Amino acid sequence: MLRPTYPIETERLLLRPFSEGDLEGLYAYQSLSEVARFLYWEPRNLDESRSFLQQKMSASTVEKEGDWLVLAVVWRESGALAGEVNLQWRSREHRQGEIGYILNPAFHGRGIATEAAAVVLRLGFEGLGLHRMVGRLDGRNAASARVLERLGMRREAHLLQNEIVKGEWTDEVVYAMLEHEWAARAAKGAGR
Q: Domain range spanning residue 109?
């Protein structure tokens, strides 16, 4: 089980569970076509964002295989909601997890996704004791691939036209990191 102590602080960010007050910030990025472009969903209206906010608010602990931890990423300087990071416990038996992140484009280009996702890797490896963590993305999403590479994850697979997303065949790229690789990076200070 993983029940972090909140907020989790980094140099520039606070990571915490979502709350009712995050609706405006959540809708600000969920409503954008450029955010939804490489995701399974279309831009969301306010009511849809409100519904998804309720789901996110209930995802602050990981108790069993299949659970998601979903954390609001807050820019400490302004208190603004910059986006979210996610951790899914994929397999208890095989000690597998998956990370994800979505950022408001207003916060792109500052290393925020990398800084927040590093926390999620640490929670997965050190908090849940996972052996392997993956990040999956649309093959066209070069910016997301760069985040995973900066985290030290290795590109393991490029699946050609493996899914139909929004009516078109898309590629999926899979990045991964093993527990011992995380430990080596953390020992050098790159994972903190």
A: 8-187
In a domain, 145, yes or no: yes
- CB-CB neighbours of 140 under 10 Å: 12
170-188 per-position pLDDT tens digit = 999 999 999 999 999 989 8
192 belongs to a structural domain: no
**Mean pLDDT confidence for 117-146:** 97
> Does any domain span residue 2?
no
Give the count of alpha carbons within 13 A of 174, CB side only: 12
Per the CB < 8 A criterion, the answer to whether 44 and 30 are in contact is: yes
Residue pair 185/115 in contact by the 8 Å Cβ criterion: no
Tell whether the torsion through CA atoms of 7, 8, 11 and 14 is positive or negative.
Answer: negative
Residue 146: C-alpha distances to residues 51, 101, 110 (Å): 31, 13, 13
State the total domains in the chain: 1
Number of H helices, E strands in the chain: 6, 8
Classify residue 3: in a domain, yes or no. no
For residue 145, give the CATH number of its domain.
3.40.630.30
pTM, to two decimals? 0.94
List of residues 6+ apart from 88 with CB closer than 8 A: 66, 67, 68, 69, 97, 98, 99, 100
Residue type, 150: R
Smallest Cα–Cα separation from 130: which of 95, 162, 165, 163?
A: 95
